[in-house]
């Protein structure tokens, strides 16, 4: 349903916004409606249901057997070697693609540019995160298809930076851009929020948006036709990330897995997601899908358990932290794509984030900057895509944190540019 249709309903589910729109001139009204063009308003219409959704039950993993590969364990050297051989064969055969989640801005670093092109100056060939990642990927193979998932806020500047820097040596014919979708922002009463007098407030739809972006652009079908069997999906903010790591790819190939997650040993007290099991109901996973559509959800699904979800007695010893490094088989994504077509509704749940905001109050006709959380943003998370994968088709690759994970999230302190720079240069000297 588009915004114009929504506001014309009787009774209108957004009466205060409808009253405001009625006071606008024709041109102003058109401008406001245009700002919502193509936007999925469903989360706003179902806000009460989403907010009242019952939490899922979570557990730690039982033993995954050979589907878990520990690269830190010296006793598994032969298994690691076997995975590496398989991974290199898949890479040489053109059976691997890479997708980098590059839709975020460097706002927490004090800038409004895309995080991927923000200047970090890590030395030669390390001017920005995208340079580091693209050059690393090219050093592995010169023929890996690369998908950059950007947002409306980062697309133009990311494209421009890559053109100016001649794609950091990467073949531009191998690069595909996908634009991440967005959801509306609502206040605590479920009313749509305006960011400006004639502009609806929106927020990116979360990193699970990679799936719909691939599906709607036809890239799942196109990559499969090119012989791609696996795609490595990872974030842009980790300069240590081993993109399309042969061990990771090969582990999927050796065991014919649909989803493989690279993880690191968890640190007690650190606020990070932990891989585990989630007991998912269909109404929680896909609340808008008709009950007549069989989602074929497992009894217990592999997932990432957010720090805030963990029970007080959850033991961190022997647990593993998520670092946003996931391999999906193209066949798995293709099967989900068929299911999504049949369902004609999102296959992933909406998560709510309660945030502070600067917005336009269309009742008081003034801009407001809140000091406390006052709006809700909707997002879907990448591990929600795991939930259709039977545990028998899921695997882990355990890696040393200092070798593969040094994210840039903050301007100073933990997970900052300086801590990542130190880890980056330490890794180069080893």
TrEMBL record:
Top-level taxon in the UniProt lineage: Eukaryota
Pathway terms, separated by semicolons: Nucleotide-sugar biosynthesis; UDP-N-acetyl-alpha-D-glucosamine biosynthesis; UDP-N-acetyl-alpha-D-glucosamine from N-acetyl-alpha-D-glucosamine 1-phosphate: step 1/1
Catalytic activity: N-acetyl-alpha-D-glucosamine 1-phosphate + UTP + H(+) = UDP-N-acetyl-alpha-D-glucosamine + diphosphate
Alphabetized UniProt keyword annotations: Nucleotidyltransferase, Transferase
Cross-referenced SUPFAM superfamilies: Nucleotide-diphospho-sugar transferases
Short name of one Pfam family: UDPGP
Matching Gene3D superfamilies: Spore Coat Polysaccharide Biosynthesis Protein SpsA, Chain A
InterPro entries listed in its UniProt record: Nucleotide-diphossugar_trans (IPR029044), UDP-sugar_pyrophosphorylase (IPR039741), UDPGP_fam (IPR002618)
Primary enzyme class: transferase
Gene Ontology molecular function, alphabetical: UDP-N-acetylglucosamine diphosphorylase activity
EC numbers for this chain: 2.7.7.23
UniProt-listed GO biological process terms: UDP-N-acetylglucosamine biosynthetic process
PANTHER family: LD24639P, UDP- GLUCOSE PYROPHOSPHORYLASE
Protein family per UniProt: Belongs to the UDPGP type 1 family.
Protein name: UDP-N-acetylglucosamine diphosphorylase
Origin species: Giardia muris
């Amino acid at each position: 349903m588009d915004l114009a249709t929504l506001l014309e309903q009787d009774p209108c589910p957004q009466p205060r916004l409808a009253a405001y729109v009625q006071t606008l001139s024709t041109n102003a009204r058109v401008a406001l409606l245009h700002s919502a063009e193509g936007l999925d308003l469903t989360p706003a219409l179902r806000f009460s249901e989403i907010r009242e959704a019952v939490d899922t039950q979570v557990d730690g993993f039982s033993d995954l057997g050979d589907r878990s590969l520990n690269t830190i364990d010296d006793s598994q050297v032969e298994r690691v070697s076997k995975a590496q051989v398989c991974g290199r064969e898949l890479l040489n055969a053109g059976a691997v693609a890479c997708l980098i989640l590059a839709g975020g801005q460097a706002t927490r670093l004090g800038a409004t540019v895309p995080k991927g092109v923000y200047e970090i100056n890590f030395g030669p060939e390390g001017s920005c995160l995208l340079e580091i990642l693209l050059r690393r990927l090219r050093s592995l193979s010169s023929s890996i298809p690369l998908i950059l998932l950007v947002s409306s806020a980062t697309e133009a500047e990311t494209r421009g930076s890559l053109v100016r820097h001649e794609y950091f040596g990467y073949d531009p014919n191998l690069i595909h851009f996908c634009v991440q979708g967005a959801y509306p922002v609502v206040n605590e009463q479920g009313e749509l929020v305006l960011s400006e007098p004639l502009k609806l407030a929106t927020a990116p739809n979360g990193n699970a948006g990679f799936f719909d972006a691939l599906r709607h652009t036809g890239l799942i079908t196109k990559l499969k036709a090119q012989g791609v069997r696996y795609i490595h999906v990872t974030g842009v903010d980790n300069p240590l990330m081993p993109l399309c790591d042969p061990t990771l790819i090969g582990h999927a190939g050796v065991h014919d897995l649909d989803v493989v997650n690279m993880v690191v040993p968890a640190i007690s007290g650190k606020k990070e997601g932990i891989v585990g099991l989630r007991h998912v109901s269909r109404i929680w996973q896909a609340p808008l899908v008709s009950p007549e559509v069989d989602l074929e959800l497992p009894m217990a699904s592999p997932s990432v358990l957010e720090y805030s979800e963990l029970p007080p007695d959850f033991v961190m010893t022997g647990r593993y932290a998520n670092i946003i490094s996931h391999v999906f088989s193209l066949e798995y994504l293709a099967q989900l794509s068929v299911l999504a077509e049949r369902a004609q509704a999102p296959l992933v749940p909406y998560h709510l984030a309660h945030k502070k905001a600067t917005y336009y109050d269309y009742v008081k006709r003034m801009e407001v900057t809140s000091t406390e959380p006052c709006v809700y943003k909707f997002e879907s998370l990448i591990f929600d895509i795991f939930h259709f994968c039977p545990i028998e088709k899921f695997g882990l690759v355990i890696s040393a944190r200092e070798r593969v994970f040094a994210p840039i999230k903050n301007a100073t302190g933990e997970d900052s540019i300086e801590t990542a720079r130190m880890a980056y240069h330490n890794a180069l000297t080893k």
